Amino acid sequence: MELGNLQPNVKTKSKKRVGRGISSGLGKTSGRGQKGQKARSGGGVRRGFEGGQTPLYRRLPKRGFNNFNAKTYTEVTLTMLNKATTEEVTAESLLKDGIIGKVNDGIVVLATGKLDKKLTVKATRFTKKAEEIIEAAGGKCEVV
Predict the structure, then answer these.
(1) Which of 15, 18, 77, 78 is the most exposed place for a label (fewest CB within 10 A)?
(2) Are residues 77 and 115 in contact, defined by beta-carbon separation less than 8 angstroms?
(3) Exposure on the CB side of residue 38, measured as CA atoms within 13 A
(4) Nearest to 77 by CA among 42, 40, 45, 121
(5) Model's pTM, two decimal places?
């Protein structure tokens, strides 16, 4: 076997060459039929078009509300805070330690689990109970 003898593993099919004369079988109208919107260059209708009838996406009722001002906070529990390597816990330190994946609009600390160490936690929001537990452990809560 040499480089000159290599062939593709799968049989390749050449694309149809249209508009190359009557004897090719795809000459003259190039497989588009006679006249009409779909025979024209750039012809055809957009997705969801129903021939002028009100399309389905406009007939169905719209439900709900999307608040574009809504903030999405990354939730951090007390159990997660136990894994922190530094005394001062910030969003950056949590990211560096791999405790959280990403920070959206800030961090909210929830009172799930137990806190074993004294920490200074800097976050966007704290639940009342989480704040009490952190301060009971000798730590501080700072709203950033």
Answers:
(1) 15
(2) no
(3) 7
(4) 121
(5) 0.56
Helix (H/G/I), strand (E/B), else coil: 28: coil
Residue % of the chain over a pLDDT of 90: 78
**46-71: b (≥16 Cβ within 10 Å) or e:** eeeeeeeeeeeeeeeeeeeeeeeeee
* pLDDT, tens only, 132-143: 999 999 999 999
Could you tell me the CA-to-CA distances from 2 to 5, 7, 39 in Å, in that order? 5, 11, 48
d(CA 61, CA 115): 49
Element (H or E) spanning 56, and its range?
helix 56-59
What pLDDT does residue 12 have? 78
Choosing among 3.100.10.10, 3.30.460.10, 3.40.50.11740, 1.10.3380.30, the CATH entry for 74-143 is 3.100.10.10
pLDDT, tens only, 11-23: 778 899 999 999 9
**What residues are paired with 126 via a beta bridge?**
109
Reported as a single tens digit per residue, the pLDDT across 89-100 is: 999 999 999 999
Of 144, 64, 75, the C-alpha closest to 104 is 75
